[in-house]
Automatic annotation (TrEMBL):
Keywords: Cytochrome c-type biogenesis, Disulfide bond, Lipoprotein, Redox-active center. Gene3D superfamilies: Glutaredoxin (3.40.30.10). This is Lipoprotein thioredoxin. It holds the Pfam family AhpC-TSA. It is found in: Cell envelope. The keyword Disulfide bond applies. PROSITE patterns: PROKAR_LIPOPROTEIN (PS51257), THIOREDOXIN_2 (PS51352). SUPFAM superfamilies: Thioredoxin-like. Residues 38-177 form the Thioredoxin domain. Its main location: other. Signal peptide: none annotated.
Length: 180
């Protein structure tokens, strides 16, 4: 009798763990659900879909984009803001520049910081969105981080640390749509 009771529990337990493994593995290959990200000072959110299997971060824009990961306490990040403003103006309509402000606690403080430093490109600062974008690019291990993406959502180039405006401009020219 003892041997039969052991088999009685063994089969359902194996099925249970089999279902858990199946659900886990199927969740790893799906798209993360479409997310909306609040842009500071704008009424229209940015929509995104990350597909881990294809390593693709697709945004609602039908154009290439630059994600600029930065923080309020980073001196190099503050130095990059003026020339990112210039690049956002120069490439308006062709390439989006989106700041991802990490370490945010309150949007009021974020707005004050953006105003103080005259940030004119789009900025996302809510903690859930910053974590989402950080995971989508494989982690952010320092700032400033510049990640360039094609309009299809494929990462093309990445730089960690302060880089010259001329280098960023060169990369933006290579990822923007060709003009005919």
């Amino acid at each position: 009798m003892e041997g039969s009771s052991k088999n009685h529990y063994e089969v359902p337990l194996m099925r249970y763990f089999g279902w858990i493994l199946f659900l886990f593995l199927s969740g790893c290959t799906e798209n993360l659900t479409q997310k909306n990200h609040i842009v500071i000072g704008e009424s229209k959110p940015i929509q995104s879909t990350f597909t881990p299997k294809e390593v693709r971060l697709k945004l609602s824009y039908e154009k290439p984009y630059l994600l600029f990961f930065f923080s309020k306490t980073c001196g190099a990040c503050k130095e990059a803001i003026p020339y990112l403003n210039e690049l956002a103006q120069s490439f308006q309509g062709e390439v989006e520049i989106i700041g991802i402000l990490g370490g945010s606690a309150r949007s009021d403080n974020d707005i004050a910081f953006l105003n103080q430093h005259d940030v004119r490109f789009k900025v996302i600062s809510d903690p859930q969105s910053t974590e989402y974008f950080s995971k989508a690019v494989g982690g952010v291990y320092g700032v400033p981080l510049f990640a360039f993406f094609s309009s299809e959502g494929k990462e093309k180039k990445r730089f960690l640390g302060l880089v010259p405006k001329s280098l960023l401009e060169e990369i933006l020219k290579t990822i923007r749509p060709n003009e005919f």
